Amino acid sequence: MKDELTYAPADGAGCHAGDTMKAAAREAGNSEVLDQYAADYPQGPHDKPQSMCPAFGSLRVGLRMRRTATVLSGSACCVYGLSFVSHFYGARRSVGYVPFNSETLVTGKLFEDIRDSVHELADPDRYDAIVVTNLCVPTASGVPLRLLPSEINGVRIIGIDVPGFGIPTHAEAKDVLAGAMLNYARAEIEAGPVAAPVSAKSDRPTVTLLGEMFPADPMSIGQMIEPLGLAVGPTVPCREWRELYAALDCGAVAAIHPFYTSSIREFQAAGRPILGSAPVGVDGTAAWLRGLGDAFGLSDTAVAAAQNASLPAISSALAASPISGTITLSGYEGSELLVARLLIESGADVPYVGTACPKTPWSAADAEWLENKGVKVKFRASLEDDCAAMEGVKPDLAIGTTPVVQKGKELGIPSLYFTNLISARPLMGPAGAGSLAQVVNAAIANKDRMDHMREFFDGVGHDDTAGVWEGTPNVREDFRELNRKKLEKQARAAKAAEMI
Ligand code: SF4
């Protein structure tokens, strides 16, 4: 029998215990899952999450789905953080939690507790599906969610491992759950007839959209593809179980967000062609409609008609809302390259785009278009890459993640938070063209205010000396040196222990 440390590795070391946890997960029999994740979500320059806990992505996908219950299994601090963020972002239902301690983890009782809770929850009048998620410690300990029953009283049970040491971003965690659900739904379709979608199915061939986007975007896409005789199908991640069947029953899949690797694997297994990039700006829309025509084997005339119906309106909208200025852009949503394309077509100079997501075949066309415009595109960009680009370029506007924005403001550079202010806007077709100009131009015009704020806060301190002090902060470099040596010694001892 394994000792307790093997089962409960590095609890308390949290998000930054990647290698230790990974080794423990392999020893606990989870190598197959980790190998699949390594293939689907290749690691970048850092081996630990630099954004929020990755499991937030899959948790949110589950919470946004009707008649779906979500249950977390993980350290209480992780679950507290994840529930807090879910409710901050407007989750309107409870997050289930099966707590554990060293004993229940070591003896396997935790798995029994999870199984009991799932049995208790599985009420077909309330739920279509229950999603159970292993966070870092239960994944590292090999809590075998695959041994849960696949269905109880007609309620589907989906068990997923979403550890921070295997899934680099919360964006990719959305794919873990979306892919697991598509896999389940595909098996149901193969086994026999399934329920029809609540909304009537279009009599035209449909295009499934992949990626969370602004609610008006699917409608804009629908208008653009109408002249091709096509209709928009469901958007994955879906909001309802039955939509998964309709999503799989499409003519082609548009990977608007290019990082949904495991979902794409499911669509490919169902024989659906996949289309990269998205209908953003003039060039993007023209190429995307062309690609869609090819996927459906449509004539050049039909494609030209669809292009003629959309492109003039996009050109006019872009011309009516020009952007002038230099912008660095970074984020972890997966739509960074699309936003950069739109900014450039609006007139902005964008020397750097960083995305925390990896390079995939579905973002290749966007990366190529941007590189041809002289943009440095960095996939799996780290926070350090994004900050270095901003500090080097000194743009008129930095669009980025919270720490990039914070650093930008400290430097007096107008900055916008990508997730809340940029990705929550329409991007597609005529509605997307020009939609960024208002917020971007207003921010660029704020330079004087940023300079004034910088002067106002000058001298209040940085990092650990920030805040209100009665006297001058007493910075003890000698204590820091001692502490640094202590930490180095601990790290050496841990490394030596690993090698025994
Ligand atoms: S589950 Fe999330 S918050 Fe908890 S240790 Fe893992 S990455 Fe960190």
From TrEMBL:
The pathway where this protein functions is: Porphyrin-containing compound metabolism; bacteriochlorophyll biosynthesis
Give one Pfam family: Oxidored_nitro
One example of the protein's molecular function in GO is:
oxidoreductase activity, acting on iron-sulfur proteins as donors, NAD or NADP as acceptor
InterPro entries the UniProt entry points to: BchY (IPR010245), LIPOR_BchN/ChlN (IPR050293), Nase/OxRdtase_comp1 (IPR000510), Protochlorophyllide_Rdtase (IPR016209)
Ordered alphabetically, the record's keywords are:
Bacteriochlorophyll biosynthesis, Chlorophyll biosynthesis, Oxidoreductase, Photosynthesis
Limits of the Nitrogenase/oxidoreductase component domain: 53-443
Q: Which GO terms describe its cellular component?
A: membrane
Name the Gene Ontology biological process terms.
bacteriochlorophyll biosynthetic process; photosynthesis
PANTHER family reported for this sequence: LIGHT-INDEPENDENT PROTOCHLOROPHYLLIDE REDUCTASE SUBUNIT N
Q: What is this protein called?
A: Chlorophyllide reductase 52.5 kDa chain
Supply the source organism for this entry.
Litoreibacter roseus
Q: What is the lineage of its organism?
A: Bacteria, Pseudomonadati, Pseudomonadota, Alphaproteobacteria, Rhodobacterales
* Gene (UniProt): bchY
